[in-house]
Design a protein that fits this description.
7% helix, 4-stranded antiparallel sheet, 125 residues, 1 helix, 40% strand, mainly beta, 8 strands, elongated
């Protein structure tokens, strides 16, 4: 039996991936997460993430501890990002500026910065 296209029905399109991130395929957990910031891209193995805290308010803050570093995410509806971290499925997180996204679009990552642990320089003996 051959499937025939139905001219009276529009094809169903897959939803576009979110502008703010990339997910691992279903059933395939991510092993590394990359934070794409204005000043560069920072990658961490998932096992280096020790905790993340979603702070409610307007805007919301999601603070992620990655080894000695701290990643601060500001935006709205960041519960989706937190849930993706909980599931180990978030591969890439990047800024998706609010002015380019319709109000009803949901998640907005307005600011993303990585605060690196500053190592003190050793004094020469």
């Amino acid at each position: 039996m051959t499937l025939k296209p139905q001219a009276d029905k529009a094809p169903v399109l897959a939803p576009a991936p979110p502008t703010w991130g990339v997910f691992a395929d279903s059933g395939e957990p991510a092993t590394v997460i990359r934070f794409e910031c204005a000043d560069g891209a920072y990658s961490y193995p998932y096992h280096a993430l020790t905790r993340w805290v979603l702070q409610v308010g307007e805007p919301q803050n999601l603070v992620i501890e990655a080894g000695a570093d701290r990643v601060v995410v500001r935006g709205r509806e960041l519960e989706v990002v937190r849930d993706a971290l909980d599931a180990g499925r978030l591969r890439v997180l990047r800024i998706a500026e609010e002015r380019y996204i319709p109000i009803e679009a949901g998640v907005v990552v307005a600011e993303l910065k990585v605060e690196l642990k500053v190592e003190s320089s050793r004094s020469e003996e």
